[in-house]
Amino acid sequence: MTYILTDAALQIDFSISNRGQQALPYSLGGHWGFALEDNIENYALQFDKPVALNREVLDGAYISGPRSWPTVTHIVVPII
Description:
By secondary structure, the protein is an all-beta fold. It has a domain at about 40-80. The chain contains no helices and 6 strands. A two-stranded antiparallel ribbon has the order 1-2. A two-stranded antiparallel ribbon has the order 3-6. Strands 4-5 form a two-stranded antiparallel sheet. It is extended and about 45 Å long.
């Protein structure tokens, strides 16, 4: 995990390597908290390019199957 802090943004990069011969299921979760100076409605997530957001649904301790959200066609997404 790499953090890059600039005047206007916090960039967080993840890198996962599978050095084995078999599939390596993995999951990443980020639950960051920030002290906001204004109402949350005034903040948004900004991506470098349009992205497809995917999610996995847990059934107890097991993943029950992938679910897809529509591709985000805007690179700025309101938080709420």
